[in-house]
TrEMBL record:
Mg(2+) 1 binds at E180, E216, D244, D286. This is Xylose isomerase. Homotetramer. One of its GO terms (biological process) is D-xylose metabolic process. It comes from Meiothermus granaticius NBRC 107808. GO terms for molecular function: magnesium ion binding; xylose isomerase activity.
Length: 386
């Protein structure tokens, strides 16, 4: 059966099941759910934890006393339910202060306020036990590039991240930081638009080892890119610190659909990559119920995300046990111990030997690797007939 257990490490943002169903053209269709209620419901459904922006829990205008009361009650509910706070982040996008950027605003006062708000949010996350801290630069971007800040924006962004990594160390928080790339929305163009761009930027930071990625299925898909390919590159770089699972039609507005709702083959490939690579972080859903839904639909949505993941995980196991699929995989790879030894680890002798080598190019040209059959077998497995 596909009943989630805390050991499956499923987590949800408070803002996901808490989503009110607003869109650029329409008002909220649902009422606000209290964070403590969300935690209770998710615990009932078998989730492991929650993530949050500072203001998902503590309203921007809360007094210090109100803040402490809210945090105390929230912690009590976490203790009662056993749910963990696995990731924390800062809302640097809702308040109009940030309309032209937070860490990349051309206004030094806004950049300083973004740092202040983030340090306070890091304090909050640490108090709740979060070990991963996410940076999604929702307003870090532009519509008008003639402002001349394209290069400055990157160095302001870098300065802020360097400052905050030092702050985390000075406080002993031990956060691992995860950058979340997105190509556009809400800005026309966001800085660090895709996984590869964020990886390149991390290498320029003072403490690159503290920074990794929080890639989101929908974000690479909006850019028309393959999410499994992006995840493979993040895993290869040792930088998959966290993940945002959801779904999305390619090249459209940000939909945040239920995991697996749209691109089932890619969702399967993703689950297989996560499970095979030994990724042991949270399986974090950053998605929301359709705007059409009432509260019952919200919990159906949450259950569906987890259930689909577990079903695909079981399909990945069957893929590994399916003898025809395994035979197709074996036939796909051609091994040649001698040539592989020659092709890896340069030496002058190997280079000479390779340059002198003859190849039967006609045989290579004619070989069919059997991918049609492999794809059909996999699809049949996914469709439930094998
Ligand atoms: C927007 C997002 C964000 C981030 C969040 C931090 C509001 O498309 O994906 O969700 O995920 O700010 O994780
Ligand atoms: Mg998103
Ligand atoms: Mg999204
Ligand atoms: Mg996200």
């Amino acid at each position: 059966n596909y009943t989630p257990q805390p050991s499956d490490k499923f987590t949800f943002g408070l803002w996901t099941v808490g989503n009110l169903g607003r869109d650029p053209f329409g008002e909220a269709t649902r009422v606000r759910l209290e964070p403590t209620y969300i935690v209770e419901k998710l615990a009932e459904l078998g989730a492991y934890g929650v993530s949050l922006h500072d203001n998902d829990l503590v309203p921007l205008e809360a007094s210090p006393n109100e803040r402490d009361r809210i945090v105390r009650e929230f912690k009590k509910t976490l203790e009662q339910t056993g749910l963990k706070v696995t990731m924390a982040t800062t809302n640097l996008f809702t308040d109009p202060v940030f309309k032209d950027g937070a860490f990349t605003s051309a206004d030094a006062r806004v950049r300083a306020f973004a740092l202040q708000k983030t340090m306070r949010a890091m304090d909050l996350g640490a108090e709740l036990g979060a070990q991963i801290y996410v940076f999604w630069g929702g307003r870090e971007g532009s519509e008008v590039d003639f402002s001349g800040k394209l290069l400055d924006a990157l160095s302001w962004f870098r300065d802020s991240l360097n400052f905050l990594a030092e702050y985390s160390d000075s406080q002993g928080y031990g956060y691992r930081f995860a950058l979340e790339p997105k190509p556009n929305e809400p800005r026309g163009d966001l800085f660090l638009p895709v996984v590869g761009a964020a990886l390149g930027f991390i290498a320029t930071l003072d403490k690159p080892e503290r920074f990794g990625l929080n890639p989101e299925f929908a974000h690479e898909t909006m850019a028309g890119l393959s999410f499994p390919h992006a995840i493979a590159q993040a895993i290869d770089a040792g930088k998959l610190f966290h993940i945002d699972l959801n779904d999305q039609k390619m090249s459209r507005f940000d939909q945040d659909l239920r995991f697996g709702a749209e691109n089932l083959k890619a969702a399967f490939m993703l689950v297989k990559l996560l499970e095979d690579s030994g990724y042991d972080g949270p399986r974090h859903f950053d998605a929301h119920a359709l705007r059409t839904e009432d509260e019952a639909g919200v919990w159906e949505f949450a259950k569906g995300c987890m259930r689909t993941y577990l079903i695909l995980k079981e399909k990945a196991q069957r893929f590994d046990q399916d003898s025809e699929i395994q035979a197709a995989l074996k036939a796909y790879r051609v091994e040649d111990a001698e040539l592989e030894a020659l092709s890896k680890g340069f030496s002058k002798e190997k280079a000479e030997a390779l340059k002198a080598r003859g190849f039967d190019l006609d045989a290579l040209r004619k070989r069919g690797p059997g991918l049609e059959r492999l794809d059909q077998l996999t699809l049949e497995l996914l469709m439930g007939v094998r």
